[in-house]
Amino acid sequence: xxxxxxxxxSPLCSITHPLLKEKYQIRLTYLNVLxxxxxxxxxxxxxxxxxxxxxxxxxxxxxxxxxxxxxxxTTATFKNLLKFRFRLFKYYSFRYVLLCxxxxxxxxxxxxxAALITxxxxxxxKISKNxxxxxxxxxxxxxxSDKTWSLAxxxxxxxxxxxxxxxxxxxxxxxxxxxxxxxxxxxxxxVGKRINRSMNEACTTKLHIINDKAFEDNYIYEYxxxxxxxxxxxxxxxxxxxxxxxxxxVASYFRFSGEKKSRVCLVDSPGVNxxxxxxxxxxxxxxxxxxxxxxxxxxxxxxxxxxDDLTYLQYIQPNLSRKNFFCH
Length: 328
What we know:
The protein is an alpha/beta fold.
């Protein structure tokens, strides 16, 4: 499937998810409902599958493992499970939260598929049919409503933040240097988390495309042959040898202060003064072939004006006549 960069940068609504306060059996049943819809509407979608794995880890915080409920494959059995789910909550139903979760996990950019999911929930929830339809319209058409969306306020806040964030212009910043310059340390400082390795060696072999997210969800995503939406430090520090492309994609909320007027994308390029590496010329050509607005060159403060710096800048400068160029 084609890699969807916008969807890759969409945070998960998990930090204050109302289900986290519920008992184990309720969380387990909710996950099973999500699993059914994802299997039906997004069985081959890597974003949906990776997001669901992250949800399972978040909901099973007490060490329990997710158990697939044996309910057969019939429509009647599926509907009975949904009915049980909603009867369990009675007045405090999670029907609005469920609709938001399903749309965000399976089809945030697919209005027609979201309409099918909305219709399926309406067929089970005999009361509140109009409210469910109104919530769908609020998400995709921006129709105003004076209704109170019980327990779904956090999800709606996340949806609106993400929608506004995606409307901002993107600013792509290429950050490059020779090895041992402090480039990775600078990037980690900008993001506010340890994203890249900071070692005195040639540790980066690909372009790392590091995207900002609309809000903090406490997850770092990485797409490096496979998609991991809860990447730990080990995953981030190692490149997957199965990835034969020149790119690794990372998404995390950037914790720098101030109003965000653009969607910042940092492009971390490999150090290029390793004379023993025959791929250096190819890396240089890859760097100058990319589309970006700003080029930041990082210089090691202890070794200013080295031959390696001069050689690299003489190669780069003619190709950046129309770019903003900064030395750090």
